[in-house]
Design brief:
The protein has eleven helices and five strands. It has helices at about 5-15, 15-35, 35-65, 85-90, 115-125, 135-150, 150-160, 175-190, 205-210, 215-225, 240-254; strands at about 100-105, 130-135, 165-170, 195-200, 230-235. Strand 3, helix 8 and strand 4 (about 195-200) form a beta-alpha-beta unit. The radius of gyration is 24 Å and the shape is elongated.
């Protein structure tokens, strides 16, 4: 066996897969550029580490289960002028996660709540935080199933351990008694330990109608608004904007 093929085998044994796969081209570059041993080794190991980070980022993104991928630069602040852009950009710095603060985006459907939440999540994923996105009613369904199967502790631990958990669309459907209790358990576990982003179309004053228990609602709100940033969005709907623009385009074609 040649030294070259022995090297390929040893790179595989060392799990340096990117270096192994790129070695033929890398050797050509090293020879052509007359790189020193140190420079050549630095080039190879830098490429290996970069590839590993890329794969880890892809895995974190997959596990986050984001419904779409929109960055903060894609957000039309001109359409929602009442939103403080500087405030949102500060949230994208992830400074709030250092103190396990939470964020509540409150506003009507289509105003960009989910877009802003996901933009923050993408920043967190890029900074190697674990994130997860889940619809509120989907979350409750999973917790209730786990409770019935006797695996609630495992499920609560799973959702409690994410560095950033996004719970989307609270308020579209009411929770039953068990669902509300399970939601409280999750929020209580994350309180002052991990950051949570909530999006809701209902003002906090109406949350008792969602959880159907005033005492429990107060306990949930108390934990969510303590150490939190509340962003109220009262602007128009992006979906209606797109609908009107598309309708106008169709009319012009006729």
């Amino acid at each position: 066996m040649s030294n070259y093929h022995q090297l390929l085998n040893q790179l595989e044994d060392l799990n340096l897969n990117y270096i192994r796969e790129s070695l033929p081209d890398s050797l050509d570059t090293i020879v052509q550029q007359e790189l020193s041993f140190v420079d050549a080794l630095l080039t190879l190991t830098t490429a290996e580490l970069s590839n590993r980070k890329k794969k880890k980022d892809e895995l974190r993104l997959h596990r986050a289960r984001l419904p779409f991928k929109k960055r903060i630069n894609d957000f039309d602040f001109g359409f929602q002028p009442q939103i403080n852009k500087s405030e949102i950009l500060d949230l994208c710095s992830l400074r709030f996660m250092d103190t396990a603060d939470s964020i509540l985006f409150i506003g009507n459907s289509g105003v960009g709540k989910s877009h802003l939440a996901i933009s923050i999540a993408l920043e967190a994923i890029q900074k190697e935080y674990s994130c997860h996105f889940v619809l509120s009613n989907e979350l409750i369904t999973k917790l209730e199933r786990a409770y019935k199967r006797g695996s609630l502790e495992s499920m609560l631990k799973k959702y409690s351990n994410y560095d950033l958990l996004i719970i989307d669309e609270i308020g579209y459907l009411p929770f039953n008694k068990d669902g509300a209790n399970l939601f409280f358990q999750l929020i209580n576990r994350r309180y002052e330990k991990k950051s949570t982003i909530i999006t809701t179309n209902s003002p906090l004053s109406q949350w008792a109608e969602i959880f159907q228990n005033k005492k429990l609602t107060n306990a949930i709100i108390d934990r969510l608004i303590h150490h939190s940033k509340i962003i109220q969005i009262n602007g128009p709907s992006y979906r209606m904007k797109d609908y009107k623009e598309n309708k106008a385009k169709d009319s012009n074609k006729k």
